[in-house]
Write a structure and sequence with these properties.
The complex is a heterotrimer of chains A (105), B (482) and C (639).
Chain A lengths: L1 H5 L2 H21 L3 H26 L3 H31 L13
Helix pairs in contact in A: 2-3, 3-4
Chain B lengths: L1 H18 L3 H28 L7 E6 L4 E5 L3 H20 L8 H20 L3 H22 L4 H29 L8 H6 L4 H18 L8 H8 L2 H26 L1 H27 L4 H22 L2 H32 L10 H4 L1 H14 L6 H16 L1 H7 L1 H18 L15 H4 L2 H13 L2 H18 L1
Antiparallel strand pairs in B: 1-2
Chain C lengths: L1 H20 L6 H28 L10 E10 L2 E8 L2 H24 L6 H20 L3 H19 L6 H32 L4 H9 L6 H17 L8 H4 L5 H10 L4 H8 L1 H5 L2 H23 L4 H21 L3 H28 L12 H4 L1 H15 L5 H16 L1 H26 L7 H6 L5 H16 L14 H16 L8 H28 L13 H7 L4 H47 L7 H21 L1
Antiparallel strand pairs in C: 1-2
Helix pairs in contact in C: 1-2, 1-4, 2-3, 2-4, 3-4, 3-10, 3-15, 3-21, 4-5, 5-6, 5-10, 6-8, 8-11, 8-13, 10-15, 13-14, 13-19, 14-15, 14-18, 14-19, 15-17, 15-18, 15-21, 15-22, 17-19, 17-21, 18-19, 19-23
The chains are: A mainly alpha (105), B mainly alpha (482), C mainly alpha (639).
Chain lengths: 105, 482, 639
């Protein structure tokens, strides 16, 4: 806690923004569904970190409680997401999103 | 107490009907049920007139967190319309005996469901209830047309449903907006909605939203194009329900909800709305002259008649408003009578095409007499019900807008033109091979027409009972204008 | 008294209900006595009312109290009671309606005896009398309007009585619709009365009107609108064309409705509203011009017609025009007097014509008749009396009533007098033409008709004789002072027109010398015309030209009724039909409905188009999503 509070909030902001942008870029440029999911996780976690940082900064535990919520939801989401990816792979032998464009119009 | 029964009885009957199998049983069960319902309505009327003017109000919580309550009751106007509904239902059921519908249980169940919804609309004291019953009335109307209708039924009823439904969404938006303007805790009941004070701009928007919803339902020119097609495609009983009662929902909504909620906007937009309504009067009458199908002819005449009623509502004078209420009743009676007559002709000749008919009066003098009486009511001959309504409407409009009254008065001439033309081409002249075999009415066929004829002359001769019932409420509504 | 008054219209109504509702079951014998019997009872009651009235002190009251039956329409200030007003004017009308009505009912029993629609006919006739009684007895304008529309309906039903024939049906429809045009005027007039006076009861309206300024624009508008109604009902220009066509109905109908009673409703209404009219000089002028024009136009058409009923119809229009001229120059008594005598002699003429048509087996063309005076002497003599009466030869009734109108017209303007006299000369000419062509010369019909010729049965000739007596002596009820009479009718009616007389400027009455002179001129002219007709049709044996004979343009114009029917067809009916078709096919289906469908189609089209954005490419979706987020953030900063 001591260390956390000694680091100014700006650092967290910048760090989280960078993490988030990496996630965004990953989502946009990667063609592999698995990597996209991982990039999404990165974005979620950057937000989590930000929530925790602000929670400490504002001295309000609500932010950390949210983090736990998000982690739980994210775990469930990843479970379903991965399951879908696995199923897609089993049927199409590919997880390249450029190939997976059957759901259209 | 009576109000709940009035709403719940048709619902219960509707569900029980679904369980019945034999067509005969269903028919007589439904007829008896609707007659009981009419009896209850009469009892409510007597109670209202004799005991108190307590509006027979009942309230129960429903979604209390949103301020929606099951609040029902009847003022004089609502009561008369409930009476009209419950009076016409047995007649419509009786007139349907001459047809054999597929799946009678479903058919009559829908008819009863419709009765429930209509009574609900006329008794709702809560805005959300009004909206819910308003939409509920649309469903059976849609299914009756779409399942038992004519050849082109799917396309036509789809248009009918979407068109009127779109209109009512505007009303929903307006109601929700008003809801948020009520003081906390928000509520939908009519007193809260009436009490909302709106800026002129807000009133205008609310007015326009209501107007679109009601104008489509009534229908007012130029929102009427769903109507002739729908009438032509719907089975006879459905047409009677639509034309006789359902159209009155829109007019009732105008009087009961629109005027008290946005009185200034009504005054501001009145001339514009009046222009549309009066245009509809002349337009509908003119088009009716050259129609070939009897049902379509009556449909266009109905556009003219309800246009006049709407014009009367917008005239915002006591006489016009009273005329509008009495004419709503009269129009319901006359148009149902006309549709019954047309149905009887169609049943005998298998056609509604005016050009194919002729000389029926020679073969079926009773039919000719009933046709004539309904026609006279419809063209507003003095001592029939139509005259009281049109006289008061035109007088009331005249008091505020002379020119509109004179133009709307053309209906006096034009209605005679198209009605007499139809009568002459169908009933008079000599018979042809189609009308050669026409037989006169049996007692079963006359049974639904006789009470209608009695009402035509009752209202025409002694309108006092009806006028006095609605006068206090009309005065109350008028008091919002000033 | 109240009960008696209330019962007068009840009996015809009862007759209508019995023979109407039970038209299949009531035997012909019952109707034969029931229908005329009901009218007779009404007549007796009317007579009792008249006697009570004439002898009691009521006659000296300007207005009598209305007999209130029940409240009809009542909303706040609008109070329309169902009440009857008995005053000298309505008393007189009651006697005419029930009296002439009864006689015609009796005649109809003979005329219609072989018709399968016997019961139906008499139920309509009784309904007509009922409506007419409401019209004349009503104590306010709406009650009058009930009768006003009611007689229109009965006229429709009776003109189209033989409804197998579509020509008759068209004539009936035309009558009803033209009447309705007038009725709209009447209705608007009533509304204006209500907004001006806040009442529709005669008493209140007239009492307030008395105090209003001469030429008050509201009054002018009211009276003009009411006059539109009167023009429709009383067949004045431009709404007269229905009356000749109305001759499609059975002849007793023409006699009762289209000559004696219903068509005089307009005259009655103006006379009833006399105070409103005398205060509206503009209306009086328009009414006078219309009346005069109608009188001359109709008389000129009548000269060239060959159908006996059509001639009488145009003659009716012409005589009604006279009555309006009388009203417009303030000769209210004169107009009502002429209304009365006209009811006698015109009913008689029609019944006589009916007797002739009956004998000729349905033939109505006077060119195919002739010499009937030997075969049917009673019809001939009564017809002769009626002709003399209508031509205005003393001492028959028409002379006195016409003279009163002409005298007043001369006081008003000598030009009006001159034109009215010309009309009267034409009347004399065409009436004697009918008489000579029908009853004199040799028989021109087929042999079968000749064989069939017979005098009508007593049930038809007795009414003729009764009416003939009335037509002959009817004028004596109002002998002017110049003949040493006491002007009984004028005195009787004086209370009704007292207010109007007070308003009108008092011109010096005509000097006796002038009056004699005018009378002499008119009479000489009439006699000359009769002689000319005699010369043309008896001595020179003219007047049998077939329809397709070559004629000069003017004659062709007149004999085709100035092509007014064709004009209306081209200017009003055709365009209305065209408009109806056009509105339906173009405006309704191609425009309004297209817009409605267009909205729906647009939604469908938008969905169809936009769905291609759904490419199925997840990368693309994500790109759009991010872009969206960036845009939202951007706009957030911007705002």
């Amino acid at each position: 806690m001591m260390i956390l509070s000694t680091i100014p909030i700006d650092y967290y902001l910048v760090f989280c923004s960078i993490l988030f942008c990496i996630g965004v870029i990953g989502v946009l440029i990667k063609r592999n569904a698995l990597l996209i999911l991982m990039s999404v996780e990165l974005m979620i976690n950057s937000i989590n970190l930000l929530l925790a940082a602000f929670s400490a900064y504002m001295n309000d535990p609500a932010g950390q409680i949210f983090v736990f919520f998000i982690m739980v939801v994210a775990a469930a989401e990843v479970a379903i997401g991965l399951a879908i990816v696995v199923l897609i792979y089993r049927t199409t032998h590919s997880i390249d999103i450029d190939v997976l464009n059957k759901l259209k119009w | 107490m009576l109000t709940q029964i009035l709403i719940l009885l048709p619902l219960a009957l509707s569900l029980i009907t679904l369980l019945l199998k034999k067509e005969r049983t269903i028919r007589y069960f439904v007829l008896a049920g609707t007659l009981v319902e009419f009896g209850i309505a009469v009892a409510a009327f007597i109670q209202y007139k004799t005991m108190c003017h307590c509006q027979l109000q009942v309230t129960a919580g429903w979604i209390s967190s949103l301020g929606i309550s099951l609040k029902f009751g009847m003022d004089g106007i609502g009561l008369l319309l409930v009476l009209l509904t419950t009076f016409l239902l047995p007649i419509i059921v009786l007139s349907s005996f001459s047809h054999s519908y597929n799946r009678p249980a479903a058919f009559y169940s829908l008819v009863l469901f419709m009765e429930m919804a209509l009574v609900g609309v006329f008794t709702a004291f809560d805005g959300m209830m009004f909206y819910i019953f308003w939409e509920m009335a649309l469903l059976p109307a849609y299914f009756i047309s779409a399942v038992w209708g004519g050849k082109d039924r799917i396309r036509i009823t789809f248009k009918f449903f979407i068109y009127t439904f779109t209109g009512s969404l505007f009303m929903l938006v307006a109601l929700i907006y008003l809801y948020f303007r009520t003081p906390l805790p928000h509520a939908f009941d009519f007193q809260s909605l009436y009490a909302v004070t709106l800026t002129p701009a807000e009133q205008s928007w609310i007015f326009l939203a209501f107007f679109v919803a009601f104008a489509i339902k009534i229908p007012i020119f130029p929102f009427h194009t769903w109507q002739p097609d729908t009438y032509a495609q719907t089975p006879a009983s459905g047409t009677m329900l639509l034309a006789g009662i359902m159209l009155k929902m829109g007019l009732f909504g105008m009087i009961r909800w629109m005027i008290p909620i946005c009185p200034h906007a009504v005054q501001q937009w009145g001339p514009a709305a009046m222009t549309l309504a009066v245009t509809g009067v002349v337009y509908g009458s003119l088009i009716a002259i050259m129609q070939k199908d009897m049902k379509r002819l009556v449909a266009y005449s109905s556009i003219a008649h309800v246009g006049l009623i709407a014009a009367g509502v917008f005239a915002l004078t006591i006489h016009a408003m009273q005329g509008a209420v009495i004419q709503m009743i009269s129009h319901g009676i006359n148009i149902v009578g006309l549709f019954i007559v047309i149905d009887l002709i169609e049943k005998r000749t298998k056609t509604r095409n005016i050009a194919d008919l002729g000389g029926i009066a020679l073969k079926a003098p009773r039919l000719a007499v009933f046709f004539m009486i309904m026609l006279l009511g419809s063209i507003a001959l003095p001592l029939t019900n139509g005259f009281i309504g049109e006289f008061l409407l035109l007088l009331g409009i005249f008091e505020r807008y002379m020119a509109f009254s004179a133009i709307a008065g053309l209906t006096i001439i034009l209605s005679a033109v198209y009605m007499l033309r139809m009568y002459q081409r169908t009933m008079l002249g000599t018979t042809n091979e189609i009308t050669e075999q026409v037989t006169d009415l049996t007692w079963t066929e006359m049974a639904p027409l006789i009470p209608l004829v009695i009402m035509v002359f009752w209202i025409g001769l002694f309108p006092g009972l009806f006028l006095d019932t609605t006068l206090p409420d009309v005065l109350t509504i008028m008091s919002y204008i000033r | 008294m109240n009960t008696i008054v209330a019962l007068i219209p009840v009996f015809p109504l009862l007759g209508f209900l019995i023979s109407g509702v039970g038209y299949r079951h009531v035997p012909k014998k019952v109707t034969t006595f029931l229908a005329p019997g009901m009218i007779l009872i009404s007549f007796i009651f009317s007579f009792i009312v008249f006697l009570t009235f004439a002898t009691s002190h009521f006659r000296y009251l300007a207005t009598s109290l209305p007999h209130h039956l029940f409240s009809w329409i009542r909303i706040g200030p609008l109070d329309i009671p169902f009440s009857f007003l008995i005053d000298p004017l309505s008393c007189l009308m009651l006697l005419i309606v029930t009296g002439v009505g009864f006689v015609i009912h009796v005649y109809s029993v003979g005329y219609m005896k072989d018709d399968p629609g016997f019961n139906r006919f008499f139920s309509y006739m009784n309904l007509f009398v009922f409506s007419m009684l409401l019209l004349v007895m009503g104590a306010n304008y709406p009650i009058m309007f009930i009768g006003w529309e009611g007689v229109g309906l009965c006229s429709y039903l009776l003109i189209g009585f033989w409804f197998k024939n579509h020509d008759y049906n068209n004539a009936a429809k035309k009558a009803f619709i033209m009447n309705r045009i007038g009725d709209l005027g009447f209705l608007m007039g009533m509304f204006l009365i209500f907004t001006t006076f806040h009442s529709l009861n005669y008493q209140d309206v007239f009492a307030q009107a008395k105090g209003m300024a001469f030429g008050n624009p509201n009054l002018v508008a009211i009276t003009l609108l009411l006059f539109v109604g009167a023009a429709g009902k009383s067949a004045q220009i431009p709404l007269y064309t229905w009356l000749p066509d109305a001759m499609a109905g059975p002849t007793p109908v023409s006699a009762l409705i289209h000559a004696a009673t219903m068509v005089t409703a307009g005259v009655y209404m103006v006379a009833r509203s006399n105070i409103l009219y005398v205060l509206s000089p503009a209306t009086m002028a328009i009414m006078g011009m219309t009346g005069l024009a109608t009188a001359l136009l109709a008389a000129s058409i009548a000269i060239f017609q060959n159908d006996i009923k059509k001639i009488l119809a145009y003659s009716t229009i012409s005589q009604l025009g006279y009555m309006f001229v009388g009203l417009s120059v303030g000769a209210f008594t004169g107009a009502v007097f002429h209304l009365t005598t006209h009811a006698f002699f015109k009913a008689l003429l029609f019944l006589g014509a009916g007797s002739v048509i009956h004998a000729m087996g349905g033939e109505q063309d006077i060119r195919k008749m002739g010499g009937l005076k030997h075969a049917m002497p009673k019809t001939y003599w009564t017809f002769l009396i009626a002709t003399i009466a209508i031509a205005g030869i003393p001492p028959f009734s028409g002379f006195f009533s016409k003279d009163e109108i002409l005298g007043k017209a001369f006081e008003f303007s000598s030009l009006v007098w001159l034109l009215a006299v010309i009309g009267s000369l034409m009347t004399a000419f065409y009436m004697f033409r009918v008489l000579f062509l029908t009853f004199f010369r040799e028989f021109r019909g087929t042999d079968m008709q000749k064989h069939h010729l017979h005098e009508s049965p007593a049930v038809m000739t007795i009414p003729l004789i009764i009416l003939a007596v009335l037509a002959a002596v009817g004028g004596f009820i109002n002998i002017p002072a110049i003949f040493g009479g006491n002007a009984g009718l004028s005195q009787f009616l004086a209370p009704v027109f007292a207010d109007a007389r007070a308003v009108m400027e008092h011109e010096a009455p005509l000097a006796p010398g002038t009056e004699w002179l005018l009378m002499g001129i008119t009479l000489a002219g009439v006699l000359a015309m009769s002689a000319w007709a005699y010369h043309r049709y008896i001595i020179k044996q003219l007047g049998l030209l077939p329809d397709d004979a070559p004629r000069s343009f003017a004659v062709r114009l007149v004999s085709h009724k100035y092509y007014i029917d064709e004009l209306y067809e081209a200017v009003i009916i055709k365009p209305t039909m065209w408009l109806s078709k056009m509105l339906h096919e173009v405006v309704e289906l191609r425009f309004i409905d297209r817009i409605v469908d267009g909205v729906g189609n647009m939604v469908v089209w938008t969905g169809n188009t936009v769905r291609y954005i759904q490419t199925g490419n997840v990368g693309f979706y994500m790109f759009i999503m991010i872009l969206g987020i960036i845009l939202i953030l951007f706009f957030n900063i911007l705002i």
